[in-house]
Amino acid sequence: LVVGTKRMSLWNYQPTVDEVNACQFKEWFTLLKKFSVASRRIPLSDGLKEYLLDGGSLFLPHSNESDEREEREKGEGDKQHANPEGPHNHADVKEAMALIDQHIKSLGGAVMCKLNWSSPADAKWIGLNHSLKCTDASEVLLLLKSSDCIQHDLTMPYQYCSDCPADSSNYPAIAHELVLRHWLEIPPAREFRCYVDKNRLFAITQRLDDVYDPDVVAQSEDIKFDIFCFFADNLVDVLPIQTYTFDIFYEETGRIWLLDVNPMFAANDHSLFSWSDIGELRIKRHEKLDKQAQTFTSDEDFEKFLLEQNSKETSEDREEEASVVEERTQVDVLNRKLLDAFRIHIDNNPSIAALAQQDASNGSEWEVDHDEDDEDDVDMSAVSAQLQMEKREIASAQEAEIDKVGVESENECVQRIELRLVEAPAPIKSGKFAVNAFPRDVVEIASTGDVNLMIRAMKQAQGQQFSD
Predict the structure, then answer these.
(1) d(CA 143, CA 384)
(2) Distance between CA 263 and CA 19 in Å, rounded?
(3) Which of 252, 202, 201 is nearest to 230 (CA)?
(4) What was the pLDDT predicted at 293?
(5) DSSP state at residue 81
(6) At 299, is the pLDDT very low, low, confident or very high (cuts 50, 70, 90)?
(7) What pLDDT does 171 receive?
(8) DSSP H helical segments within 91-189, as ranges?
(9) Backbone angles phi, psi at 201, to 5 degrees
């Protein structure tokens, strides 16, 4: 049983409530807006939230005039079930629609919408041309109301958290907001999801698993290196969490747009990776390059391995604390050396020693007068320079030790990242219906629209292939 192929479900990582909150749009966008897309945030009013959560028939808010026209057209039987005070007639919704249209215009006339965490990607089927592109408020609300992801944001955002309250009514207060983002025409093959654990980037995958682009494959090494540099320069130590995923758009020119930041959990879409793959790659990322893949003969052995990994991480933390204590001890030793040198300087200068004794007997502080004519003075600048040199030597030795045991070079970090791209589709080899398997005259006949002639030509071509 190889690590990660079957038993990596044991790595059931669950984010905390704080980690999920850190992935809200307003949290990461405030820190990284210069790398992202122009966006507008609209607080979600109670009326709009009620409309999005309404489980009745799918309808869009409209004007009072059209409301009255509908009521006149309805029969008496329908009128008794009508709810004129329902969410679609709520003033908050109509006010929000006017504000949405205003922001769409300011963002260039087309936007992509989302809430605090999720976009309505699962409702793309209902959008124009099966797209998330919206040009007015009605399209925005249609996508939001049709999406299960949006419902999850509104009702159970902490469902997969390790410290999630058992009762959703005990969730922390959430200031829901609608986010409108300038629409970018992103080639499907150039959107990537990247995986980070303990502030180490360990996996990258294309977001769509059915779009092959030979240009992306040709750029694979540049893509991996550029994404790592973007991560190392702009995300590490900026975000308040260490385990998460982030989505980017990689342009042909090498420019990178940050699209989203999400918590790491199994229910996410992992595209070309499985959750087992993610667990396996995470373990490999934290291992040494020359360490061979471990195999196990039983589940018990594998569980023991995971426990050892956890204890190893704990021992490494203790060693780091011990090194800090040792460094402080060495600094204290150097300070004592400096104090001893100063005392030698006083002892070798009788006039200063006498002055020190006289002032000490009076209980007052005293200052040292520099006697330029005293040949016995100790050169304090030389002593200080010597001590500084010793400090630098200790620091250099410590840095060399750190490099030897833990710090990786840039090339090593890039080499240990798994980049997974959509492979080129295999050529169709079937002799029955593959167009590229038929002679040119069959294809030309098919383009004429003569069904009978096309069937005869296909049968003839099929018979020739089987006879061959």
Answers:
(1) 70
(2) 7
(3) 201
(4) 42
(5) T
(6) low
(7) 80
(8) 91-106, 137-145, 148-155
(9) -75, 125
The interaxial angle of helices 46-53 and 91-106, nearest 10 deg, is 100
Q: How many CA atoms lie within 13 A of 399 on its CB side?
A: 6
Nearest CA to 254 out of 234, 225, 276 is that of: 225
Length of the chain equals: 468
Alpha carbons 329 and 398: distance in angstroms, whole number: 14
For β-strands 244-250 and 256-262, DSSP reports them as: antiparallel
Which H or E run contains 464? Answer: helix 451-467
Residue 215: partners with Cβ closer than 8 Å, 6 or more residues away: 252
**3-state SS class at 94:** helix
Q: In 3-state terms, what secondary structure has residue 246?
A: strand
> Is 97 a residue whose pLDDT tops 50?
yes
From residue 132, give the alpha-carbon distance in Å to each of 57, 104, 107, 116, 261: 21, 14, 15, 17, 18
First to last CA, the chain: 46
pTM: 0.63
Structure tokens at 386: 């010597």
Minimum mean pLDDT range among 47-56, 253-262, 332-341, 346-355: 346-355
Backbone angles phi, psi at 204, to 5 degrees: -140, 135
Question: Nearest 5°: phi and psi at 307?
Answer: -65, -40
Bridge partners, 249 (sequence order): 191, 257
- pLDDT of 436: 52
Q: Over the stretch 115-137, which tens digit does the pLDDT of each residue have? A: 999 999 999 888 888 899 999 99
Indicate if the pLDDT at residue 326 is higher than 60. Answer: yes
Structure token digits, residue 319 = 């060693």
Type of residue found at 363: G
**Six-digit token string for 90:** 């709520």
> Between β-strands 200-206 and 191-197, what pairing exists: parallel, antiparallel or unpaired?
antiparallel
C-alpha–C-alpha distance, residues 181 and 134, integer Å: 10
DSSP state of 183: -
Angstrom distance (rounded) from CA 358 to CA 355: 5
Distances (CA, A) of 70 to 63, 78, 81: 11, 11, 13
Output b/e per residue, 124-150; b: 16+ Cβ within 10 A. beebeeeebbbebbebbbbbbbbbebb
